[in-house]
Amino acid sequence: MNRQSALWMLGVAAASAFSPAVLAEPDWRAEAVAMLKRDFQSKGQASVERIQEDSLQTICNTTNNNPPESIATPAMLEQAKTVKYPADGQLMGDWKSGEKIAQSGKGLTWTDEPGQPVGGNCYNCHQIAPKEISYGTLGATLFNYGKLRGGPSAEMQKYTYGKIYNAKAYNLCSLMPRFGHVGALNEQQIKDLVALLLDPESPVNK
Amino acid sequence: MTIRNQQRTVSCGMLAAFLIAMPLVALEAHAETPAVEKDAATLEFERFRAEMEDFGPSGLWEDKGEQLWKTPRGPKNASLEKCDLGLGPGVVKGAYVQMPRYFADVDKVMDAERRIVWCMVNFQGFKEEDLAKQPFAKEGQETPEQTSLVTYVAAQSRDMKIAVPQKHPKEIAAYKIGKEISLYRAGPYDFSCAVCHGADGKRIRMQALPNIATPEGALNTFQGWPGYRMTGGVMLTQQWRMNDCFRQERFPHPKYLSDTITALLTYLTANANGQVYKGPGIKR
How many domains does one find in chain B? Predict the structure, then answer.
């Protein structure tokens, strides 16, 4: 430490000691995190470790979900590296199975049986096939998703697969879960959802 | 039987009729496709709820809670009439809309249910671990006593303004920490309260999501609780509502009557300050 920075630190320490304004505001986030760690316990498959943030969650939690580009860009690249594309190169499965997965909100709560298939929760937040009118609005509408994007091009399949696998690779603090990254949805399920969105035969694109 | 009770009997009939009619309405709306039809069902529910809440099923638990409050019970054979809910020993009128608040005797902020359980332990000699075993009503099982007590206490604040105190440093701390907790994203799905309840006019499926940071949205988290929930036909409190939100967030399980829940309820309820509480209600 050089002399200048030592003096600066002394100055900060003095200001903290004498200025009530600096002392007054506790670190509420730190207190909240400590409280959460005291108050939660494991139940079923929802183990207490889930209270612990991972590095991405810390970034979003400490920047009001709006990190500066200097942080967001490298962090998104990190997330992109987590996406595992199918070894067989096939990214589109069966849209009919995809519709069932999109309908289901099951999985990962303390009341869900571990090992049972997890749902995609898609309709909770998105409009998808027109027949289903009970859809949420937290996410964008996905009706006509493939039609509006020029059909199931290789590029669009890759983007769609990646987005479902890890939405944070495209928008760091997206509200959407990282379904593939956290192991909620498996490769086949994601393929089926890609088909629901992109297959010209899917009701989404009719 | 009082007039109120007669109305209740009538309303139970209405409730049954509605429960039978409800799936038909939903099915029709489903078959005919346009979203407006389903919205009409939602509007119909709102109208039904407004009518029902004037003399709704929660009255049964209000009465039960009143008996539990006034009858000497427990190992100490005492009533709860010495219980101080913040306005003096035994004062129930207006107490519910002024909690969570700081209680000097425990040097803590407590929400209504936590305080009532504390009184049951302190004055009547019940054991907290017993009361925590099955704290929320389940279909086909008896309603926990504290739920009836909360319903009684809440009913004594009907049509009163929400006025959660923010004077004591611990009350202010509870609010600030509660706000941070509402924003804290964690778990496998990166969810927080605010992920779903952080913007206006959003919904999950057909369920509207109040924005808890706004006075109108915060009121939604308070209004109608404790509430008779038509799913399962049970009476439930805000403690249950917070618990089940964390379940859906894929979080681990919050301990019953924890500081976390009190802090969250302080944040939510204080955000609704100044608005009128309509008393125990009905929830879907």
Answer: 1
